Amino acid sequence: MRHVLVTGGAGFIGSNFVHYLLRTEQEVQVVNLDALTYAGSLENLKNLPDESRHIFIKGDITNRALVDQIFSEYKIDTVVHFAAESHVDRSILDPGVFVNTNVVGTFTLLEAARRAWLVDKLIPIDRVRFHHVSTDEVFGTLTREDPPFDEETAYAPRSPYAASKASSDHFVRAYGTTYGLPVSISNCSNNYGPRQFPEKLIPLMILNATTGKPLPVYGDGMQIRDWLYVDDHCEGIWKVVTEGRAGETYCIGGDNQPPNIEIVKLICDILDELQPDSLYTPHQQLITHVQDRPGHDRRYDIDIEKIHKELGWQPRWSLQKGMLDTIRWYLNNPDWVKAILEQSDYGAWVKKNYEGRKG
Ligand code: NAD
Ligand code: TYD
After folding, report:
1. Ligand 2 centroid vs 169 CA: distance in angstroms?
2. Total domains in the fold of the chain
3. This prediction's pTM
């Protein structure tokens, strides 16, 4: 039995990962440590494939005593670290919490792992792994002509979110080289899929469109992201944890890069087909260009050759299929949407982020 500490497992990707792991692996026990911030919810952990192999602990990754206790009590041999503040717009308005959770939190987990595995030697060193889930945003922005990011690309973060993730990546690598902690990192592009918090582009547009609200496209909408369906990311992470080499970084991406405006139009077109009688069809009438994000990265693109060649991973979902599945999920889960909006004070966020943006 493998004892996996998943941090941030009540958030978007973390909860999808917990579902994925319990569904695909029999010999795994999951200890899920999550502070249940605005972005985390127990709604995301309903109907797990096997409740008996899942232990949920509400707590903060910066709480060293708690993290130490979890390592020894549950004989943790694997960490998959998702917990983070994850939204660029929030990092612009309130950067301090990003430093605390993303940098200090990651440092706290690394220290606890070092103590448990290298000092107290609770688990043989050849059976442990600390995997850090990171983002392609640490690499900064690309021009139209630049080659895609890969594992050798120099770090050049531009938002407080990206800077905090870059810093945490550096700490993880430093613990690998300095102390010999068996670490790995994955830098992934933008995810989408079920259970994503509605502040992010795709769920925001789906939920605004179905309720007839404006679809706020930042600037000219020609910024480019690389989109990956969340289950593909979960599979890639587990491959890196179980088959990837310690000390290595792997880039993960969806191999498709439409501009934001095309993503928004795709959502509108799918909704037109699924809801032809909606008051808001054609949904593209709701598109509104609003003031751009400060320091907005123009283009991301990521090269997945290393993980493909070494570990045989590649995305399974096309953007069309992933988007259709995602939109259907949001339409079929109104109770989830209602609960998440109510418990997160979402209205206050919308006011704070969008009220000052002139159309
Ligand atoms: P999310 O915001 O949906 O979830 C974050 C989770 O972490 C929440 O459940 C929250 O309660 C928890 N958390 C926050 N602070 C905590 C703390 N101090 N202690 C314990 N738990 C805490 O984020 P997400 O989109 O699921 O992203 C997960 C990870 O993947 C992050 O590290 C992010 O940087 C990375 N990532 C995200 C994307 C993306 O497109 N969403 C892409 C690449 C990488
Ligand atoms: P987001 O989902 O916040 O992810 P990230 O900033 O981490 O890439 O945003 C994705 C893209 O969509 C990004 O270029 C910003 C843009 N965007 C909008 O145009 N309007 C919005 O209301 C939001 C939230 C994002």
Report:
1. 22
2. 1
3. 0.99
**Phi and psi angles of residue 339, each rounded to the nearest 5 degrees, phi first:** -65, -45
Q: Domain of 163? A: 2-197+227-257+301-318
Q: Residues 304-331: pLDDT tens digits?
A: 999 999 999 999 999 999 999 999 999 9
CA of 145 to the centre of ligand 1 (A): 31
* Active-site residue flag, 269: no
Assess if residue 110 is contained within a domain: yes
Q: Report the run of H or E that residue 2 belongs to, with start and end.
A: strand 2-7
Question: In the numeric block, which tokens belong to residue 102?
Answer: 């993303």
Does residue 50 carry a catalytic annotation?
Answer: no
C-alpha 300 to ligand 2 mean position (Å): 12
136 catalytic residue (yes or no): yes
**What Rg do the C-alpha atoms of the chain give, in angstroms?**
20
Q: Which residue of the set 77, 137, 232, 235 is catalytic?
A: 137
**pLDDT tens-digit series, residues 242-276:** 999 999 999 999 988 999 999 999 999 999 999 99
Query: CA-CA distance, 183 to 46, in Å (whole number)?
Result: 31
| Residue 141, domain CATH | 3.40.50.720
